Amino acid sequence: MATFLYRLGRLAFRRRHFVALIWVALLTLAGVGAATAPTAGDSSFSIPGTEAQKAFDLLEQRFPGTSADGATARVVFKAPAGEKITDADAKAAVHKTVDALADGSEVAAVSDPYVTKTFSENGAIAYSSVSYKVGPGELTDASKDGLEKAAQDARDAGLTVDVGGDALAAEPAGGATEAIGIVIAAVVLVLTFGSLLAAGLPLLTAIVGVGIGVGTITALASALDLGTTTSTLAAMLGLAVGIDYALFIVSRYRSELAEGRSREEAAGRATGTAGSAVVFAGLTVVIALAGLAVVQVPMLTKMGVAAAGTVAVAVLIALTMIPAMLGYAGRRIKPAGEKARFLGGRRPKKTDASGEPKPNMGTRWARFVLRRPVAVLIVGVLGLGAVAAPVASLELGLPDDGSQPTSTTQRRAYDLLSEGFGPGFNGPLMIVVDGKSSKDPKTAATDVAEGIKKLDDVVSVTPAAFNKAGDTATITVIPDSKPSSVRTEDLVHAIRAGDGPVKSSTDADVLVTGTTAMNVDFSQKLNDALVPYLALVVGLAFLLLIAVFRSVLVPLKAALGFLLSVLAALGAVVAVFQWGWLAGLIGVEQTGPIMSMMPIFMVGVVFGLAMDYEVFLVTRMREAYVHGESPGQAVVTGFKYGARVVSAAAVIMIAVFSGFIGAGESMVKMIGFGLAIAVAFDAFVVRMTLVPAVLALLGDKAWWVPKWLDRALPNVDVEGEGLRATDAASDTPDADPDGRRELVGV
After folding, report:
1. What is the Cα–Cα distance from 733 to 148, expressed in whole angstroms?
2. Measured distance CA(255)–CA(266) in Å, rounded
3. Which residues are CB-contacts of 108 (< 8 A; sequence separation ≥ 6)?
4. Distance in angstroms (rounded) separating the CA atoms of residues 651 and 666
5. Least-confidence region, from 297-301, 395-399, 695-699
6. Closest alpha carbon to 695 in 586, 642, 621, 637
7. Integer Cα distance of 140 and 155 in angstroms
């Protein structure tokens, strides 16, 4: 592996014009494809194999043309204090609004609250339901503007009016959050490398990689039914790993220059050694993301595969474009230890009493841990365990309008409906009675409705509404509790129970669907898939790391450390987003259940990123150990050359993820916070603290592998042992020391 990548790095360095041309062409192709691709509609959300999905599919068949997947809006009216919505003035304003809403070309139907009697018992609040012929993403600006104008006209008439539903759902904000991460990353890179040019290379290549990845996703979004969240995740991960991978190769390049190697040779060796770590680190991320297919939720599978593709592009760019850019930079990239003049490059280096260079922070920290491994290990594990404690009270759910900021009209409409009709009104259950095999479908539907009324936590049950064939009916059930509550989930299970008062009184098939039921089924499916997913991802990565480190205990330690990181990060998420600790500090306005996909999402993403730092840091230790250093000294050497770079990489990744904490959407905010805190725990507590402590205690045993396994494992040579034979041949007098050789025939 190291020898192949070494040759690839030297080739890219020499043929830099050709390499740069290829990547520019790919970026242009992705950009043109994205610009000319048809506008993607909403990504379809389905959960194959669940009862809610089965009921939804049945409705599509038995109630054709109902636009079940069309956009919806619920316009909520509230009369001024002391007045009623049935007063003449209020009634006139509501009727005017309903007429205005019905004029839209994309509107399928608008309900009149005075006909449907949809106003509260005290007469203060009413609502009108609007359904559209197209999905939320396909709704034109004219339709949205018409909805907002109609609501504003009613406000001008003295009513309080807000709009819920997905018709006015805003697209996730992009650009600003990524820009925050890039700015912070640039500052960290400048401080790490001491050079603007060296700092600019990782940023440039990462942006090119993200541009190709996101551009390709955008170009294929319509054909592959990809949602906007897919490109957001791909951009988030692609930017983070792209900068990190380039950072490690550029850093190793500068270290090779400091040892006196020519620039072409340094580029080759940096690609062969650090590039090998990049390949295997990237493979763990790709495995973790592609493994989301185990959940068998199409949306998650597409998100994982698309993000994995962007990470793969970041790996290829790091192995080819970075050496090419180093060739263009020439002498302007300084060896390790040298800084630009404006950053103090001419200051004398610090020395100790004997005149030797003063050990860097990484060396001093490693020596401290080696002196007190047991104490450091105990403190680190207990600290992460304490942070992970809130996981015991983890509650899962999916966000709805109730989790939106109070400044949004969707949240205000949600609160008005809860005030006028009860908290359960925002999460109605749709009961589908399939009476095709029933002797008397109408009697069966009536019996189902009567049975549901006998259950706890039920406020109201609407009469059955049949399709034209008369063999299928829908019944709407309003729970007494809010959609995300445990009581509502229990009600869903009670209706579905075979021995309850519902199914025992009918010979028809009874199915529960609707947004709330879909959320319940989605959460259950994710919970059921978590253990198989964890086993698959950790198992495959464990085998991969055994081949990389030729050790059994080092990969085992890496996996256990990852579990500590994920549990601690989930504990922090529960404390902030569910318990409300420090919620105001990061702008969390509404606490509640944790997003259902958060645990499995964090397992996948954090595992891949955690293995990045494990591979980058421990391969340098393995390299030193293979080259004859003692286990303890190998740990110190690994930290001497790797701690600064790993710390910089972690800070960059934390900055990229933290930029998403400022998003208005609670789901994006939660993901940004969870990933940022997980990287902080894993990089600085697990990899930089617990790893050296465990290796110090294990000694030579850390690198033990059974002889039979050692013979069976492929020789991937991540530590670059095979490159020693190239030293004499590569640094010949006719080598191009500055990488300025003219290229012929490119």
Report:
1. 74
2. 8
3. 67, 70, 131, 132, 133
4. 23
5. 395-399
6. 621
7. 23
